[in-house]
Amino acid sequence: xxxxxxxxxxxxxxxxxxxxxxxxxxxxxxxxxxxxxxxxxxxxxxxxxxxxxxxxxxxxxxxxxxxxxxxxxxxxxxxxxxxxxxxxxxxxxxxxxxxxxxxxxxxxxxxxxxxxxxxxxxxxxxxxxxxxxxx
Length: 135
Ligand SMILES: NC(=O)c1ccc[n+]([C@@H]2O[C@H](COP(=O)([O-])OP(=O)(O)OC[C@H]3O[C@@H](n4cnc5c(N)ncnc54)[C@H](OP(=O)(O)O)[C@@H]3O)[C@@H](O)[C@H]2O)c1
Fold this sequence. Notes:
alpha/beta, Rossmann fold, globular, binds NADP nicotinamide-adenine-dinucleotide phosphate
């Protein structure tokens, strides 16, 4: 049975590496990135015989992208087995919490907290289908 793994922020760093590992384990990897050109290029670097990766454009701060992700996964696969909720931003490590611009704090929460939550909401209904058999 085809098993589906969704990786966010897959175009570099940990997301890229985990995508390769999941593909080697036999998962079909839904390789998501907010920048289509960067994402497609990064995914191409992983493609080799025996690996299955499918690109999907996803900005985790964009709720329309989240709805599109759910619709795509439901239509094409009807299930999700693994979510690697990886996409995040990191404010400059040298910034002090006392003086950091609050717009940076807000953007960080929007991406790292609300974004991760939004992706979970888009994917968990398709995980529950596996557990409950569709109910
Ligand atoms: N590296 C570490 O030592 C470490 C330690 C603890 C935890 N972590 C966590 O592990 C995760 C990955 O770390 P990393 O070092 O691989 O980070 P990274 O190299 O900075 O990569 C972050 C990824 O997230 C993507 N991203 C950022 N904002 C996004 C958005 N709005 N929508 C979609 N994608 C977005 C980036 O895309 P772009 O290329 O388009 O910017 C990039 O692909 C993060 O959650 C990080 O907090 C890392």
